[in-house]
């Protein structure tokens, strides 16, 4: 199946890039939060960024925040085998060292984030208890 709707896709890409139409000021796409929400174990990143395959779990989303011992164990050397981030947005800080589901790292892991398939009716109905 091909996911293609010209208007929707164009609008979503603009929104994600931070240049789309949004009524809220200073709206930014938070890559760390999205990674934790939709790729909690880091499988997608691990598939496409083989340099980070040795990093376990959600830590793969913020390799620059790991200790040098953890990086060495994973075979990652920042600035050599994997680049330092070009920028680190202030809004990322509250998601660094978090596990899927919002538990702080390293204790209290609750497992992958639970996303309910709400369907389109959730967004248009008056009842929001679903």
Please, could you describe this protein's structure?
This protein has 130 residues and is mainly α. It has a domain at 28-97: DNA Cyclobutane Dipyrimidine Photolyase, subunit A, domain 3, CATH 1.10.579.10. It is 29% helix and 0% strand. The chain contains 5 helices and no strands. Residues 93-130 are annotated as: Disordered.
What does this entry show, briefly?
With 130 residues, this protein is mainly α. Helix content is 29%, strand content 0%.
Task: Please supply descriptive tags for the structure shown above.
damaged DNA binding, 130 residues, mainly alpha, Cryptochr/Photolyase_FAD-bd, DNA Cyclobutane Dipyrimidine Photolyase, subunit A, domain 3, 5 helices, FAD binding, single chain
Structural class, by secondary structure, is: mainly alpha
What fraction of the residues are assigned to beta strands by DSSP? Answer: under 5%
CATH architecture of the domain at 28-97: Orthogonal Bundle
The outline comes out as: globular
Alpha-carbon Rg, integer: 17 Å
Classify the helix fraction into a percent range.
25-40%
Number of helices: 5
Secondary structure tally: strands: 0
Mean pLDDT across the residues is 76
CATH superfamily of the domain at 28-97: DNA Cyclobutane Dipyrimidine Photolyase, subunit A, domain 3
Say what the CATH topology of the domain at 28-97 is: DNA Cyclobutane Dipyrimidine Photolyase, subunit A, domain 3
CATH class (first level) name of the domain at 28-97: Mainly Alpha
- The SSE string, one letter per element, is HHHHH
Major sheet details: none
Taking the alpha carbons of the first and last residues, their distance comes to 28 Å
Q: Which stretches of 5+ consecutive residues score pLDDT under 50?
A: 102-118
């Amino acid at each position: 199946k091909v996911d293609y709707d010209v208007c929707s896709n164009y609008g979503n890409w603009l929104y994600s890039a931070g240049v789309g139409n949004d009524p809220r000021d200073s709206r930014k796409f938070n890559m760390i939060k999205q990674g934790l929400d939709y790729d909690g174990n880091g499988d997608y990143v691990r598939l496409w960024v083989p340099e980070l395959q040795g990093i376990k779990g959600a830590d793969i989303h913020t390799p620059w925040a790991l200790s040098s011992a953890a990086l060495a164990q994973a075979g990652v050397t920042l600035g050599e085998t994997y680049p330092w981030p070009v920028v680190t947005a202030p809004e990322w800080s509250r998601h660094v060292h978090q596990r899927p589901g919002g538990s702080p790292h390293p204790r209290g892991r609750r497992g992958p984030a639970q996303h309910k398939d709400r369907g389109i009716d959730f967004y248009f109905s008056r009842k929001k208890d679903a």
